[in-house]
Amino acid sequence: MLNPNNHIIQALPIIHHIAESAKKEDYKEIIIGSFIRGADKKGACTGHCAGRCIDLNISSRSFESVAALQMVVRILGYLTNLPDKYKKSMGFGMPLQGQFFGHQNLTKYKGVSTTLLKNEELRKLVNQLGYVFPDNDNHLHIQFNWLSKSASNYETEVVYEEGESYENS
Amino acid sequence: MQVVISPVKVNQENFEFESPDEYIDDTEFDSQNENEGSNFFFESINTENAIQLNRKYGVTLGWATLYDKINDILLSYSGLESVSLSESAFSEALAKWQKAQGFNSSDCDGILGPKTWARMKQLLSNTNSIQVSPSLPSGTPPTIENTFEFNRWHAEKILENMNTGFVRAKLSIERATRKNQSG
After folding, report:
1. CA atoms of B35 and B50, how far apart (whole Å)
2. Measured between CA atoms, how close is A116 to chain B, in angstroms?
């Protein structure tokens, strides 16, 4: 279990920034989903377990909607204003749904070119912030490692486990 | 989702000292320690260096407010009784305490930095329900060297936003949905 006494929970300033940004815009659709989880089946504690990932949902739930796309664009826009010290090695897991990857036949959890994203604004934002990979439906997954000086290989940073879904994320 | 940070109490049940996955600030051992690679412990600590760093860490880690309680723990390692230890005696006693706690020889440096403080806090929480630090200022986040307060400050800010409805946790919605469904 992550111990806040001796472990910086990297997700906290990111969530805080998103929440404060939403407050400034009086935007109330963001739902904090999965945050800190236990170690994986092999006992490794990375990603969610290490407090370096967050999943965000929308109040209307489905990411097929335009509202979901708008929420994700809005959140990534918030992140462009994140203090530079936190804006490092950011990865985004986005669903194959709707205006994200448009139900293309892509392998989940592996980094892909932003050109595969359907929405131009989303492409620009991801290019500005980090990298993207297809993920499970109905949530935006954000991962980061702003404490690490060497985290740059996104493939090692993709931490989502195959088979996870909205129901258990 | 529930934010897991307790606002003030040290959580000893979840204490995981020196987990390889943790980002413990080891600066107290990186460059300041003169005993690295040595078999000597407290006899050869750099007392002056330890005093300087203890002054700094007492403030940044917040343990200066608990000096008397720490003093009580270290007294038995100082050979003294019923006194407030001088800074040099404090460092020397701390080095002995670090050794007794099983720290590596190179870590028995008499410096109460983040790593040692993590262990000391646990010990303090065994005997007292203590407040680790005073209330935080509202506008400025603590530095990451002050791990617990950094986490706490951000968590409290997030909770403030949740309480005012600007972000919500999925768990609460699911609970509400289940409650509605069950009538």
Report:
1. 12
2. 29
